[in-house]
Q: What sequence folds into this?
């Protein structure tokens, strides 16, 4: 089982028009490194909490969001404003 479905991510990018790349973490290496993976939860297992990390080319992280549950996501305007403010 993949951590993320490439086709679902592609459709999401097309539907929302996000102006930046999205990492597809098939092996779950990144979610473990960023501390958002959890083995067992009340509503899911072996997945990450919903999370967004805006990573600059220099590796700095000017914006992050980590949901408390599987239904909590940042608002798209919030993500876009963070991306715009970092140049």
A:
């Amino acid at each position: 089982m993949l951590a993320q479905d490439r086709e679902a991510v592609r459709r999401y990018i097309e539907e929302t028009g996000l102006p930046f790349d999205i990492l597809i973490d098939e092996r779950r290496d990144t979610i473990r490194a960023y501390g958002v993976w959890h083995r067992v939860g009340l509503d899911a297992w072996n997945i990450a909490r919903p999370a967004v990390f805006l990573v600059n080319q220099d590796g700095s992280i000017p914006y992050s969001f980590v949901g408390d549950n599987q239904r909590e996501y940042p608002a798209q305007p919030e993500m876009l404003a963070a991306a715009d403010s970092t140049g």
About this structure: The chain has one domain: 6-85. The chain has three helices and four strands. The chain has a mean pLDDT of 80.
